[in-house]
Amino acid sequence: MEDLIKKLELMKNEILEFKRPKDRRIFINIKRESLKNFIKFLVEEIGVKHLSTITGIDLNQEEMELLYHFAYNNSIAITIGIKIPKNNLKVPTIIDIIPGAIFYEQEVHDMFGIIFEGHPDLSPLILPEGWPEGVYPLRKEYSIEKLREVLKKWVMEVQ
After folding, report:
1. Do residue 138 and residue 93 come from a single domain?
2. Which of 129, 136, 123 is nearest to 154 (CA)?
């Protein structure tokens, strides 16, 4: 674990916050513009091979957060976080570095509307065909009641 931390220190200029709440758990918040280089560093220099998932979080009216969850050496969990302003929900895709991210990015796009620039297909993966454009179910501005209204209207239009 100490060797891993030493290697991560090479990227200290890109790191905004580093936490190690448990022995085998690392949380790293990085600069948004460093995402691609940091992921490339994890894969090429550290040897991270498994992306477990990408989590989107609607933090507040101004920003969202993306968390990239990695498994390293079968026992160390590394989470890389970036914050994204809601007035510019664009981040670069990482599928050229980790091809398996393709569906995770598509899912986050469906649920939050985050655009992964360079992704070959951001068509709906989870949401049904014909789902209203611009309605992202996991954003805080959509309460359960509001989503029920959208769903009711959508069902009527589809029938």
Report:
1. no
2. 129
Largest CA distance in the chain: 60
> What burial class does residue 116 get, using C-beta atoms within 10 Å of its C-beta: 0-12 exposed, 13-18 middle, 19+ buried?
buried
Give phi and psi for 28, each to the nearest 5: -130, 120
**Do 81 and 33 fall within a single domain?**
yes
Q: What are phi and psi of 124, to 5 degrees?
A: -55, 135
Cα(124)–Cα(30) distance, integer angstroms: 28
* Per-residue pLDDT tens over the stretch 40-62: 999 999 999 899 999 999 999 99
Residue of 44, 43, 16, 10 whose CA lies nearest to 31: 16
Contacts of 83 (CB under 8 A, 6+ apart): 29, 32, 59, 63, 64, 65
Q: What is the mean pLDDT of residues 15-19?
A: 95
Is 25's pLDDT higher than 90?
yes
**Token pair listed for 26:** 């690392």
Domain count, the chain: 2
DSSP tag of 142: -
- Whether the CB-CB separation of 50 and 68 falls below 8 Å is answered with no
Q: Are residues 79 and 136 in the same domain?
A: no
